[in-house]
Amino acid sequence: MNTQLFSADEQDTKRAAEILKAGGTVAVPTETVYGLAADAQNPTAVNKIFTAKQRPNNHPLIVHIHDIAQLSQICSSVPEVALELAEQFWPGPLTLILPKHPSMPDEVTGGMTTIGVRMPAHPVLRKILAEGDLVVAAPSANPHKQLSPTSAQQVLESLAGRIDAVVDGGFCQVGLESTIVDLGSIEAQQSPRVLRAGPITPTQLSAAIGRSVLGYQEHQQSVPGNIEQHYQPKGRLTLVTTDDIVAHISKWPGNTACLWYSDTVAAHLTTVTPPNLYSISHDKAAYAQALYRMLYEIDQVGYDHIWVEQPPLSEQWADVNDRLRRASA
């Protein structure tokens, strides 16, 4: 298969929509990471996602919409709290788990009675979806368990020849996958629950709806991203303390890269800093946006090991810590 590279102009977004409507697969930019899209109402097309990613087909996929009215096509019911959250955070990096409409293929949901839905904010993807009035399933556009891509080039490196096209919408602005909130069987008195930590925190969700939202805790529910080994670079990733890094700066091993952010490490660097130490922002949003891109760039050099300075253990950093924990598993 010859994978085409499209730009973000009107002609190419129309071509991307045509491929999707015809049952093809297109890697598309979102504000979180690049997704591998297929028509969510076409089981044959959806199965092409699993084949391209080499992903087990019992893993549910997230469906992406461009209009709130499309919820009636894919959900059997929509609780009021879902509409409240959608009003506050859509378009944006929030996925809601809702009861599945009987017409939606089991291939999308892994046979479950619920379905994950979000409305992406990236203007290029929104243009593609509106062009074809599409509802697409779109997990991250990478081979199963590997680093999620945040650029078109990264998609091409891993999926060229397996998918029909890639739309280049530039680097992703958020850089980490969406927050997932479970509303699939919620009763009026129950609290929504975060099933995957993401850019939108439980505190933000709670403030938006005026009721408690339970934060992420480890669970066995089948949702995107909930496998122990995931988001993994080629080099073996290890989370280390700031003291570990400082202790090795003067005798840094040549086959090990290090991603650091703290002022403490910066204070111990000199004019002879090893070239395999990579600085990343201590600002959480900037860190999240750059994380996958920098791990990908480190992989291109070919290090055997990647040390990552342990980020802060706070709610704001929960999504970063979740991804790094799984990347180091």
Automatic annotation (TrEMBL):
PROSITE patterns: YRDC
Major subcellular site: cytoplasm
Lineage start: Bacteria, Pseudomonadati, Pseudomonadota, Gammaproteobacteria, Alteromonadales
Highest taxon, organism lineage: Bacteria
Subcellular location: Cytoplasm
Domain YrdC-like: 10-200
Role according to the record: Required for the formation of a threonylcarbamoyl group on adenosine at position 37 (t(6)A37) in tRNAs that read codons beginning with adenine.
Sequence similarity: Belongs to the SUA5 family.
Record protein name field: Threonylcarbamoyl-AMP synthase
Listed InterPro entries: DHBP_synth_RibB-like_a/b_dom (IPR017945), Sua5-like_dom (IPR006070), Sua5/YwlC_C (IPR038385), Sua5_C (IPR005145), T(6)A37_SUA5 (IPR010923), TC-AMP_synthase_SUA5 (IPR050156)
UniProt-recorded Gene Ontology molecular function terms: L-threonylcarbamoyladenylate synthase
Keyword tags: ATP-binding, Cytoplasm, Nucleotide-binding, Nucleotidyltransferase, Transferase, tRNA processing
